[in-house]
Amino acid sequence: MRHKPVLLTEAVQCLALRPGMVVVDGTVGGGGHALEILKAIGSAGRLVALDRDPEAIERCRPLFQNYPQVSLHQANFRNAEKILDLLNIPSADAVILDVGFSSDQLEDENRGFSFDREGPLDMRMDPGDPVRARDLVNDLSQEDLEKIFREYGEERWSKRFARAIEYARAEHPIETTGDLVRVIQSALPRSLIGTKSKRMPMLRRHPATRIFQALRIAVNDELNALSEGLTRIWPRVKVGGRVAVIAFHSLEDRIVKNQFRAWAQAGEATLIFRKPLTAQPEEIESNTRARSAKLRAVEKTHEGHR
Ligand SMILES: C[S@@+](CC[C@H](N)C(=O)[O-])C[C@H]1O[C@@H](n2cnc3c(N)ncnc32)[C@H](O)[C@@H]1O
Fold first, then answer.
1. Domain ranges of the chain
2. 277 CB near ligand 1 (under 6 Å)
3. Ligand 1 atom closest to residue 126's alpha carbon, by position in its atom list
4. Rounded to whole angstroms, how far apart are CA atoms 89 and 91?
5. Distance separating alpha carbons of residues 270 and 297, to the nearest angstrom
6. 252 C-beta closer than 6 A to ligand 1
């Protein structure tokens, strides 16, 4: 299944695109937002489309083969300004980041993103990166694992799960998604499991959800990429240009909110909406990923002094 873009109309509309504009899509993924952007900027426009995942780039290639105005690059958006340099593009009218992972990545068991699919415990968006989730799980100290689970997963049982991993890996390395899920499940507190007649009364989500989120964020250094990506692309956004970000959990959204507010307070930007935009019930019904999506956008009003 191809990735279904979230908040498609809202995200593209809030960029206020016109024919001929230059746009950076830092997370091209399945190309859904990019195709909609292309409709708005037309053949006189320019779309610089990036993804750190080479498979996403290969999947997008046929989509854009009839669009000479698209430059497709395998790159981390934290280095987007370097790609603009490479293309001799001084500045952009709009930037969109739809962060996190795609359904294409989640559904491929060989990538190790899903606790529902047995596969290698990998989670690298860019397979050229050196560290896999299995490396963190087997090599980090119990304390460091606990910190990752607490900070990136906001996991209440971080210490308990880190300790369980420490015990389990002393017996056998934890190599697969299934190995990790079994360790987490074996360490669940009784109060969460419940009794036979009232099974898992407190569990609204899979017990490994937050652990997988935390490891994915750590493996891909996602939060630093987001904050660095925003600060480094900002000087390359034209005055009057817009930046839109779709975030999928509170840690990402906090970074975006704080950065946008800082630009607004410095007199460099205005917020397009005071509160983030979320998906309509109809979209959530047809795409559960939309449930947690938050869209924020700013318009650059003045050049900064950096
Ligand atoms: C939610 S999907 C984007 C979907 C896309 N907007 C669409 O319409 O199909 C997120 C994508 O961003 C990519 N990604 C995440 N962090 C990235 C980063 N720092 N640099 C470049 N790409 C990144 C992932 O590899 C994934 O393909």
1. 8-104+223-300, 114-221
2. no
3. 25
4. 6
5. 9
6. no
As beta bridge partners, residue 25 has 49, 96
Task: Select 8-104+223-300's CATH number: 3.40.50.150, 3.30.565.10, 3.90.1150.10, 3.30.40.10.
Answer: 3.40.50.150
Per-residue pLDDT, 304: 85
* Ligand 1 centroid distance, CA of 211 (Å): 20
Stretches where the chain sits below pLDDT 50 are none
Complete DSSP assignment for 124-190: -SSTTSS--HHHHHHHS-HHHHHHHHHHHH--TTHHHHHHHHHHHHHHS---BHHHHHHHHHHT--H
Q: What is the pLDDT of residues 213-239, one digit of tens each?
A: 999 999 999 999 999 999 999 999 999
Question: Angle between the 222-233 and 209-220 helix axes, to the nearest 10 degrees?
Answer: 50
What 3-state class would DSSP assign to 98? strand
Q: What is the DSSP letter of 204?
A: S
Alpha-carbon distance of 249 to 222, in angstroms, equals 12
pTM score, whole prediction:
0.95
Output b/e per residue, 262-293; b: 16+ Cβ within 10 A.
ebeeeebbebbeeebbebeeebbeebebbebb
**Architecture (CATH level 2) of domain 114-221:** Orthogonal Bundle (1.10)
Triad 221, 49, 86: Cα angle to 5°: 90
Structure tokens of 130?
């050196």
Q: Is 206 exposed, middle or buried (0-12, 13-18, 19+ CB in 10 A)?
A: middle
**Per-residue pLDDT, 203:** 61
Residue 10 has a pLDDT of 97
- Give the type of residue at 170: A
Chain position carrying tokens 């899920």: 181
Q: Whose CA is nearest to atom 22 of ligand 1?
A: 51
